[in-house]
Amino acid sequence: MSEVAEYLMVNYYSRYKGPRNDIVPNKNDLIQALENNRDKVIVVRDEHIEGVAIFVNITDEFYALLKDLDITRFDILKNLLTQDGPNVHFVLLCANGYRTIMTGIKHIKKLKNPRTISWWSPDLSQLHEYKVGG
Description:
alpha+beta, Aminopeptidase, five-stranded mixed sheet, 5 helices, 5 strands
């Protein structure tokens, strides 16, 4: 998970934190968080890492509230990590392009067969939502 943490530190946290320095973990904390949640991490790689996504399985009730939740707050993120519902929400998505994102989505559809897949844009201005199954 050290390689994944390094990828995220360079390609995600260095770019998308905006004015919120308090939401940037140090590398060791990030490695530990990834280790503790291996089942919620998807890595797309070719010769090198092309993209990383961390996801949660959320209930329909939480899915309906996504637009109103501040997912940068630790207490909300912690609550999302304990959910077990039919919807997949990427709490972190970092990829080198559209093709990598689609590869990750294809993998999560096969792995979890979700009802919906969603994620926030890096600046948290837009919630991307896709209905997948029933």
